[in-house]
Amino acid sequence: QVQLVESGGGSVQAGGSLRLSCATSGYTDRRDCTGWFRQAPGKEREGVAVIHAGRKTKLYADSVKGRFTISQENANLTVYLEMNSLKPEDTAMYYCAARAGTWCGLASVWFDSWGQGTQVTVSS
What we know:
Low-confidence stretches: none
Oligomer: single chain
Number of strands: 11
């Protein structure tokens, strides 16, 4: 079993920055791939960024490329999402998720461990 706890959300003005953290614990082999997903009211959940612990590969949604950076601490597998140049359309509940295996993409359906989420609100 894997536990994921997000923190770092909040309210900022457009152009501002936030750093989200995802503290992970549990079976290491169930956390090969960890990612951030978001869901705005009335919209489907979408993948934002993912990172594979072993391969060190990263993948970003086109909407956040160049603005968001995902990283991971090797020691405890904590995952961070640095968000810069925030836009009102980035407003959403942000979730951390993890899965085992070599595949590491942005499709949320393949992730089986989820945190409770942290709210990000960007005002114009």
